[in-house]
Amino acid sequence: MSENFDERKDLIQPKKETNRKDMVKNVAIAFLSVMLVLTFFSNTIMNYTLPQVATVQIESGSISPQIRGTGTVTAEDPYNITVKETRKISGVAVKEGAHVEIGDIIYYLEDKESDELVKAKETLDTLELDYEQMMFSGDVSSAVISNVRNGKTASYDSYQAQVGSVLDTYNAALSADNAAQAELDYISNLMDYEKAGIDYNTATPEYLIAQATSDMTKAANNGDTDRVAELENFMAELTRDKSQLSTYSSQQGYSYSQKISQATEKKAQTSAALKEAERVKEDQLKSINIEISLCQKRDKITEQKEKIAKLEAESVGASVKSPVAGTVSSVNKVAGESTSADETIAVIQVDGKDMTTSFSVSNSQAQKLKVGDAAQPQNAWQFSSNFKATLTSIKNDKQDPAGKKLLTFKIESTEVTPGQSISLAIGERSQEYDMIVPNSAIKTDTNGKFVLIVKSKSSPLGNRYTATRADVTVVASDDKNSAITAAIDDYEYVITTSNKPVKAGEQVRLSNE
Where are the transmembrane segments (predicted)? Predict the structure, then answer.
């Protein structure tokens, strides 16, 4: 039994050793895997922090140092076709770019009166009705009616004389009426004054009589007969004075009543004369105003008739024809649309007139040119060999007079119309070079011009890219590319753009990876 146990013990011991070795191996594999993952992600994170660059391979090719620009063609003294009335277009006879001769039809029109002519006739009807209603309203004299109907128009001097006459009469009547009223007021006031004096004088005897009567009663009671007799004589004298004053007052009253009656009658006469003068003045002024209004209405009717006659004379027939020979540069209407008075409905580039175009260039570019230089269309395949563009002027650009020049070209071509955009090139012909790079790849610092070349280096985790400086000499350039010479291979890749500044020796990542 002991022997069997030992045998089983020997069998169990190797199995435990095998399990321990597997565990160590698994731990090592797991550790290496974690390290690998961490290394991968650390490199990935680092790559995303690197400047991202775009590159282009150095190639051979041509450099065209020509000056290029695009401008809109304008016509020198283009002929604008207009109509003087509103008409509806029934058809268009030509297309833009077509050549027309004098008398060629441009548009067909509906055969009816223009809106302006119809409206002018309606206005005339209204003016004539208003004129006739005022003429025979009953407020106009026969003399005025005759003058107006006969075409007579009084001068302002005549009106001024008429107004002056009635105003003089009115002012004289007003002065007379004011004088009559003043006289009446004076007599009335004088009568009141004298009556007050008479009334005062009349009251004095009455007072003295009353006093004497009292004294006489006392004397009679005292038996003073002499005093009584004296007072009776005094009272008799006072009674006579009172009677005389009463008679004088009555006489004065009659006299002033007569004077007031006469002044009142005179005032009534001047008032009537003033009222009549005022009526005459108002009638005269009203008559003059009506006459002036009627003359104006009559003259407006005459002007309106002349306007209608002119519209009828200028009325376009069933079509609009070209009055000049040339190329139709624009047709502004289509069938069904209406024209407006004096609206440009077509433009013709008259034969023999120049077309021009302009665009701006830098001062350095302009220095390479002179007036008389010939230019070619950039898209030459679109034009025939008859196309000709000549530089006619080099002037300061008003938008940037210090930095730019405005080039103006004369265009000679039957294939070009005003309003068309055209791109021209002027200057030297293109030449072939071994190394061409985009202008954006050329860098400059205190040491001169250089490019940044991308160098690649393999690693266990992929390729690493580094920017390397290469000094260059620019031998020619145009608006897009530059030809260079440098101690580099012609198959290298140069950096053109980056999302952040890049220095020589820095690691970068490519935008397409």
Answer: 23-41
Cβ burial, residue 73 (10 Å; 0-12/13-18/19+): buried
Phi, psi of 372 (to 5 degrees): 105, -15
pTM: 0.38
Q: What are the residue ranges spanned by the domains of the chain?
A: 1-49, 52-63+432-510, 68-110+326-426, 129-314
Helix/strand/coil percent split, the chain, to 5: 50, 25, 25
Q: Which residues in 29-187 belong to E strands, given as ranges?
A: 52-57, 59-63, 67-72, 74-75, 79-82, 89-92, 99-100, 105-109
Identify the burial level of 476 via C-beta atoms within 10 angstroms of its C-beta, where 0-12 means exposed, 13-18 middle and 19 or more buried. middle
Fold entry, domain 129-314: Helix Hairpins (1.10.287)
On the question of pLDDT at 270 being above 70, the answer is: yes
- Mean pLDDT rounded to a whole number for the chain: 80
Residues facing residue 485 across a β-bridge: 473
Considering the four listed CATH numbers 2.60.120.330, 3.40.190.150, 2.40.420.20, 2.60.40.10, the one that applies to the domain covering 52-63+432-510 is: 2.40.420.20
DSSP 473: E
φ, ψ for residue 106 (rounded to 5)? Answer: -100, -45
Contacts of 383 (CB under 8 A, 6+ apart): 377, 413, 415, 416
Residue 187 pLDDT greater than 50, yes or no: yes
Closest CA to 356 of 333, 384, 375, 337: 375
Look up residue 177 and give its two tokens. 């009426």
Distance CA 107, CA 331 (A): 9
- SS3 of 50-87: the string is CCEEEEEECEEEEECCCEEEEEECEECCCEEEECCCCC
> Which among 129, 148, 130, 136 has a CA at the least distance from the CA of 291?
148
Consecutive H or E run containing 284: helix 225-314
In this structure, are strands 326-331 and 99-100 parallel, antiparallel, or unpaired?
A: antiparallel
Nearest to 54 by CA among 469, 502, 459: 502
Amino acid making up residue 324: V
Which DSSP helix (H) or strand (E) runs through 404?
A: strand 404-412
